[in-house]
């Protein structure tokens, strides 16, 4: 790899080179399992420069030394800064259509005695995905009324989790939603909150947010009936993906569902899921 690093004609505010980038992306991988490609050299600089500015540092070398022990509060700031968080309400809408049309009727038959369902949104970012799941469940069937429904939403980034828990968004983020859905599930801000919306308590009450590193221990109260892990696997290497897929399988109830992102697939892995199409998978009812 070659990249411009503080040479004539390419000036930077802070001293930054390939050695710094390698140290930082190695640290990121060791903690999160996320592979950082060569083309993120400049992205690392732009996202972390504000941290050096806040800390009064002039060289990335010094910042690397600060975060390498993983013990201080700056390490959390480092992970938050480099985490990618792209999401939207009802993104990849076919998953929510399938949840409404197929998964909920399956639960009504299978879970009729317990009247209970558990969903996990793994890599929930700023909360649009788990809130979309909650809205779908609340809209899906009146027979779910009185059920014990809970959605666990986890992410590595503590900053986006704080945003998600607050449930407050720019009005532009809900601009494509139907007016009926907007009226039913969002409060419109006024005065100093003009241009903002807040998710109503009926939706927020279904969701619990928790910080979780997917490659670390999972202190979770499973099993789950449905796991959303969309556009997350793409950041990991093949061995890590395979381990995650196996762990998801084990944490699902027989007949449980796994939804992954539109650019992802399980076809290169030895796995035991049934392929439902459109990046949706199901654990067999009589799972080995």
Structure description:
The protein has 288 residues and is an alpha/beta fold. The chain has two domains: 18-82, Chemotaxis Receptor Methyltransferase Cher, domain 1 (Orthogonal Bundle), CATH 1.10.155.10; 94-282, Rossmann fold. 39% of the residues lie in helices and 18% in strands. It contains ten helices and ten strands. Strands 6-2-1-7-8-10-9 form a seven-stranded mixed beta sheet. The chain has a three-stranded antiparallel beta sheet with strand order 3-5-4. The longest helix is centred in the middle third of the chain and has 17 residues, at 94-110. Methylation of the membrane-bound methyl-accepting chemotaxis proteins (MCP) to form gamma-glutamyl methyl ester residues in MCP. It holds the Pfam family CheR_N. It catalyses: L-glutamyl-[protein] + S-adenosyl-L-methionine = [protein]-L-glutamate 5-O-methyl ester + S-adenosyl-L-homocysteine. S-adenosyl-L-methionine binds at residues 85, 87, 91, 129, 155, 213-214, 230-231.
